[in-house]
Each structure stands twice: as structure tokens, then as C-alpha cells.
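Feature request disguised as a bug report, sorry. It would help if multi-protein outputs had a clear separator. Right now it looks like this:
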Amino acid sequence: MALILLICLYTQFTATPEPLPVWFIVFVICWNLFFLNFSPILARYILPKREVYFDRQNQTVSFSWSVNNAEKNDHGHSTFPFEDIEAFYCKANHSQVHGVTHAMYIAHKDYENHHGAFSEIRVKDNPQNPNYCKYTWERIVRFMDLTKPLVDSPEIEPFRHLDPVTHEFDKQNNRPEKYWRLMSYKQMKQIEEELDDDIYRFNFDGAITNPKRWANKEITKPWEKWPIDESLNQPDDTPYWKRLMKTLAMQIIAGV
């Protein structure tokens, strides 16, 4: 949109106006559609995958690329015990309008002998506030804790029954099987904003040094804290073609 606007200003509001370069406008629109829709697909299937994954059951961390002096798991990936991995964050200059941000990294504690066991872990928008890096690592540590059930979140809900500890917890507490899946998107967004606000202001350092004063109690029964609001759970009667056109228009005009 910015490129098209600049071209219009340059061609129409000069001493000698020129015809609009229609070919360039069409090129920009086509590039937007390609970049936003097809390039992620190409990257997924063409570029080599670089993934780090945490195995709760086996208490391991695996890297999908080659790492020095590493054992291989059943998938042929470099694997280490979770206790051998540490995390840290630091300031990073990313190409974002809000300037300096914080990035989170994980690495093997003995990186000198396990060169390659290092990766950046994406956090929410690589924010200026380092709390999101701390929160991301806290979620990983919590996920790997076999003494507790899985965190009750939408992306994990369909798989809770596969974890014995979680399955037993849900059974004892009569957890609704499809709690998150029956909730409206609007209510989910409200809950997400509430949690984001808590994370942004949370005193992580204080919670470590003085947990009795600063640490928050974990929300283990979200269905009691946030009952499903049926008033927000109304079906969207907008025709599909209208929603599709709105999405395409937003992509072309604003790139979102």
C-alpha cells in the first residue's frame, strides 16, 4: 500500500503528471498475495526444517540438525536429557518498528563439547518486555514436569487424555472434555488479553527470591475461573464469500 501511494504521489502530483504504472500496481498486489499465502507453504516443504522439540515422556530435548557428540533418537535427531539444557534471554535487534527487543535462547550447558546445541525460541512478537521470554521458559519447564498435569490451554486440550497424569487429574476434577473447543473466539481473546496483561506486569525475579509474596497460584481449573459466556458464543451468520473477500482485502491493503 505504501509503494502504491508513493507511485501515485510521484506520477500525479508533479509538474508533469504521468500515467499510473498499472503493471507496477498489479505486481505489488500479486507479490503481497504470494508473500502472505504461498511463501510460507514453499518454506515448509522446500527449506530444511530446523526444529527443537521437548519430549515430556522421555524427558529429552531434540534438535533436528546435527550436533557434535550427540546421541540420536528414533527419528535420527540429536537428543539430550532435559536437565542438560539451559535457557537465557538477551536484547536483540530485529527488523521491527519498535526497536530493540528481547529474544530467548536455549543451549546445552556444555556447549563447547556439543557445538550446534543452540537455538532461538520464538516468543510473542519478540517483545521489548523480557517477561515473555521468562514466561515461555516457565511454560516449557512446567510442560516437562511429570509430577503435574499438562497446562490447561486450547492447543493441548485434544491431547490431554494421552498423558496419564493429566487424564487422571481431569477425571478426578470432572473437567469438561471440550471446554476450550466450545468457547467462542471472542471470549478466548478476552482471556488472552487478561493473561497478557498479567504477564507484562508480573514480577518474575520477585517470585523466585520471595515466592510467598510475589508468586501467583497456578490456574488449574480454568472452567471455574472463566465459565463459557453463551452471550459471546453466537454463530456468525455472515456469508462465507463475504468473510473471504474481507480477508483478501485486508491482506492486499494492509498485509494482515
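(second protein starts here, but nothing in the output says so)
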Amino acid sequence: MARGTANVPIQHAGSDETLWQGSPLLLLDRLSGAADEREAIERTRDVSFGLDRLLRRDSPVHAAIDRKRIVAAGHSFGANTTLILTGAQVIRDGKPLSFRDPRFTASIVISASPFYGETDLAAVLAAVDVPTLHFTTTEDTIRIPGRYSPAQDRIDAYAAIPTPRKALVVFQGGPHNVFTKRSLRNGWPLNPLVKRATAEVGLTFLDLAHKSDPAPLEDWSETWKPILAAAPTPFQVDPRRWARKRRI
């Protein structure tokens, strides 16, 4: 927990770290299963179920949760889950397939995997309208058996979201898993710096999304300029609203 913000990780059986366990000969099958559309749907249900449990009146944290400031966040496949929970949808049999959870008021999208098999990204992301913070790096390439995705895919996902209430962080260098807890060979000193910067900017983004305060995000960009290829631009807020807040 930091500054009143708590992180609640959700376990996704079938597409978690167990993918890397077991016989290497079956790795491709496990990865293909994790990227399957049905698994993506199950991940969204996992998250909504977990939130249901947290918000129950008999939950020990029930009273501590601000229901107007619940944020979805995830990395790679988890970032796709985040986008689906906040409006991403596909068309199946002529009908939109949506698993949006309206309780999420903002999202943090870290190195989102592509929506494999979808050709119209703008249509998939057209309904994502909550404030969204995107992360990637200049070397954010996905290379796993049967799946390849260049760093530009992360930029394209950011660009396809129609709401102006979005921001993009691009770190200079660092592979796709630089944001994860796994240690990287030859990752020093960038690896721990990216992790620390990511944690910090997430909180500054929430100041902007929920408090209409752009100053922390601007300060963050100045502090971390040496490792940034592109700094996030604060989206438009109502200056009169923020002026009133500063006077209080």
C-alpha cells in the first residue's frame, strides 16, 4: 500500500506463472491456451469475482474501499484483461462480446499483448473511455513460440483508444518483461529503475485521473527524463476545478 492506494493481485489459474513450469515440449500448447479467447474471458471473470468478494459487506476491507476510485491494472495478457474490463470488445456472430465491469474508473495498461486474430484495433477499443495510462519500452517485443509482437503494437493500442483522457510512458530500452518481478540478465541498472519509476508514475496518474492534479505527473516526467524515450502528457483537466481544490 502507498498513499492510501492498495494493490490486490488476482490469480489466473491456467495463464499464470505455471505456464513456464512442466515439460518444455508442451510449452507451446500452454502458451497457446493462455492466449486463447476463452482464457481471456475467464481472466476478466476472475477479476470481477475478486472485486465482488472485496466489496461484500462481510469483507474486512469493505469500508476502506472508495468505490469511485477502483482501478484495473495488468501487464501483457493482464493488460488485455484490463482493457476488456474497461470496454474492449469484439464482434462474434454479428454481436458485440463485452465483459466490461463498470466499477473500474481508470486503468493502467502495461505492455499490452495484441488482440490476436483481430484486424480492426480501433473497433475493439472504441468503447474504452476511462482514464488510461499506457506503458511500453523501445525494445518491448514479444517473442514466444507461436506469438510475435513488435513494440509498435503497444503504441498502436494507445493510439486506438478514442478518449483523450490517456497518457503514454515509453522507457528507453528494456524488454517486454522488464516490468515483471522476474530478474533479468544484464538488467542492471535499468531494471530496478523502471520498476521504481513505474510504481511512482502509477500514483501520479491517479492524482490526475481522480483529483485533476497534473503537477505530480509533470514532476515525475522531469525526474525520470534520463530513462524516458517519451514522457506522458497530462490530459486535459478543468483548470477551474483544480484551482478550487488548491484554494481549499
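Even a blank line would do. Unrelated, but nice: DSSP finds eight helices and nine strands in the chain.
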